[in-house]
Amino acid sequence: MQKATVLSVLLLGAVLAGCGDDDAPATGEGASAGGPAEPAPPAAPEPEPEPAGPDEACAQVVVVAWQGAQYAAAAVTRSKEEARAQAEELRSRLEQGADFAETARAESDAASTAPRGGLMGTYTREEWPAVHVPIRDAVFALEVGQLGEVLEAPYGWVLARRCPVEKIHTRHILIRYRGAKNAPQDLTRTKEDARALADRLHNELGAPGADFETTARRHSDDSSADRGGDVGTLGRGRLAPEYEEAAFALQPGALSPVVETEFGFHVIQRVE
Q1: Are 217 and 174 in contact (CB under 8 A)?
Q2: Is residue 189 domain-shared with residue 248, that is, in the same domain?
Q3: What are the pLDDT digits (tens) for 211-231?
Q4: 64 found inside a domain
Q5: Which end of the chain has fewer beta carbons closer than 10 Å to its terminal beta carbon, N or C?
Q6: 63 shares a domain with 99
Q7: Rounded-to-integer distance, Cα 265 and Cα 272, Å
Q8: Which tens digits make up the pLDDT trace of 94-118?
Q9: CATH number of domain containing 183
Q10: Which DSSP string do the residues of 152-182 spell out, in sequence order?
Q11: pLDDT confidence tier of residue 155, bands split at 50, 70 and 90
């Protein structure tokens, strides 16, 4: 069975408006019953964020499309002028303190980013998605946290906010099943069997002496298996939402619970 590339497994699509081709909270340990209570150990410090590169930006967007704009959904019937007026009204709300993520979820026409609170991702200038080049320079000209003016792009009027760059280095084991996104046609494993295997591997990795990289090379259905499951260091917004939520909740070196995405079941480790 051929293993799909890690980009096809985890990285989100670059199109903001149009088809939605995008793609467990951390658990605490319970106290044992009986006996005198011992002082709680000091909380582990939060991991230091990976430093941003000098030519790297995170973007958060709200898109207001007009009828006939690139990737506009059939339900969009407003004119270009009406869309501009709506974008300006939304910008005024944001300037007055409206939450950007909530506004994106409620108002944005970008099917791939609206569910993520408008988060488009973190890119260098060189890797910036071609479809978003019309807003790239404006985003890089903003200070972190700053909201830009209404911008025109082929897919609609865009409100862009430059968000802090948060990066994470992870490796994972992916267990696919028949019918999962990007699963090979000849894959016969059922979803139930995939979950059972992911649970078993997760339990094995929790045992003393277990080696994540070796286990990934043997069992992962992703091409990153050849690298011991290493996905590399990526900025927030570049990974499947469920994967990303679980990964950022981990301390370095920690193992996630089994995480389900549309691609299958993942066991994730945050790299030191």
Answers
A1: no
A2: yes
A3: 999 999 999 999 999 999 999
A4: yes
A5: C
A6: yes
A7: 23
A8: 999 999 999 999 999 999 899 999 9
A9: 3.10.50.40
A10: EETTEEEEEEEE---EEEEEEEEE--TTSTT
A11: very high
Inform me whether the pLDDT recorded for 58 exceeds 90: yes
Count Cβ neighbours within 10 Å for each residue of 221-237 and write b for 16 or more, e otherwise: bbbbbebbbbbeebbbb
DSSP structure string for the chain: -PPBPHHHHHSPPS--SS-------PPPPPPPSSSPPPPPPPPPPPPPPPPPPTTEEEEEEEEE--TTSTT--TT----HHHHHHHHHHHHHHHHTT--HHHHHHHH---TTTGGGTTEEEEEETTTS-GGGHHHHHHHHTSPTT-B---EEETTEEEEEEEE---EEEEEEEEE--TTSTT--TT----HHHHHHHHHHHHHHHTSTT--HHHHHHHH--BGGGGGTTEEEEEETTSS-HHHHHHHHTSPTT-BPPPEEETTEEEEEEE--
What's the token pair of residue 221?
């259905």
Q: Which residue has the tokens 């339990």?
A: 203
* pTM for this prediction: 0.72
CA distance 200 to 223: 21
The number of domains in the chain is 2
User: 201: domain range?
Assistant: 166-270
Boundary residue ending a domain (163, 195, 230): 163
